[in-house]
Write a structure and sequence with these properties.
Elements (H helix, E strand, L loop, with lengths): L6 H4 L5 H15 L6 E5 L5 H6 L4 E6 L2 H10 L5 E3 L11 E6 L10 H13 L1 E9 L12 E9 L2 E12 L2 E12 L2 E12 L3 H10 L2 E6 L8 E6 L2
Parallel strand pairs: 1-2, 1-4, 2-3, 4-5
Antiparallel strand pairs: 5-11, 6-7, 7-8, 8-9, 10-11
The structure holds S-adenosylmethionine.
S-adenosylmethionine binds next to helix 3.
Length: about 230
């Protein structure tokens, strides 16, 4: 079973419209290049794209075909690319690249995250921006803690329970979903592994990619935010 179709229900607590508004504000304040081309990397179901597409010429990229199917349905006129953020070549540049909701963590290792940031950097025009919302730092991740989320609608019940774990510099957890619908109740487990990177390590990745960077510990959703500007 694929829980992708429940992704938007599970993350219905997120205010994508407000987050996209904050991203747009940062772009207006910091962008130093002509044009409005924006690429959202690891765009998921296209929720940020939905609120950015009126102000920018937006494209999306994600590794998951299932996520992209939903993103395309939501944003029928937006081009989407199925590709890997650590190694893609769209053959063109953008004024802004975003990578939000901690998706950079899925690169898993420092080496692959650096590759991803470098790859994103190569797709940005001089004076353009790379905006990355990070996953946890090693110190902020608390292994051995249990978490639960409940969706309680008349015809849909989802109980999602997990325990946060850590091996070396990788956080991992199994998301156990109990999904109840009028047709019956099913159980599905989704395994996740995300790399834990230090702030200084992230900043170094930006510098290595030719981007000057600032870090805001709050960002758009209290997860922190790196804003890099391509200087050359
Ligand atoms: C937590 S979701 C975030 C989705 C979206 N940005 C949002 O805010 O809802 C992480 C996304 O990263 C995508 N992803 C994971 N590894 C990836 C990779 N190597 N390249 C591109 N996308 C990846 C997943 O398919 C998923 O859509």
């Amino acid at each position: 079973m694929d829980v992708t179709k429940y992704y938007d229900k599970i993350y219905s607590f997120k205010d994508y419209e407000q987050e996209a508004g904050k991203i747009a504000q940062i772009i207006e304040q910091r962008l130093c290049s002509e044009g409005r081309h924006l690429l959202d990397i690891a765009c998921g179901t296209g929720r940020h794209v939905e609120y950015l597409k009126d102000q920018f010429e937006v494209e999306g990229l994600d590794i998951s075909q299932e996520m992209l199917t939903i993103a395309r349905r939501r944003n029928p006129n937006v081009p989407f690319h199925q590709d890997n953020m650590t190694d893609f070549d769209l053959g063109r540049t953008f004024n802004v690249i975003t990578c939000l909701f901690s998706a950079i963590g899925y690169a898993k290792t420092l080496e692959l995250a650096s590759k991803a940031i470098a790859c994103m950097g190569r797709h940005i025009i001089r004076g353009g921006l790379l905006i990355v919302e990070p996953w946890f730092t090693p110190r902020a991740w608390h292994p051995g803690t249990a978490h639960a989320l409940l969706i309680d609608e008349p015809n849909l019940k989802i109980a999602r329970v997990s325990t946060s774990l850590m091996k070396g510099r990788v956080s991992y957890f199994d998301l156990h979903h109990l999904i109840g619908t009028p047709e019956g109740t099913t159980h599905f487990v989704e395994h996740h592994e995300l790399g834990l990177f230090e702030i200084e390590e992230m900043k170094q990745m930006f510098a290595d990619a030719g981007l000057s960077v600032t870090y805001d510990p709050r960002g758009i959703a209290n997860r922190g935010l790196y804003v890099g500007k391509k200087t050359k």
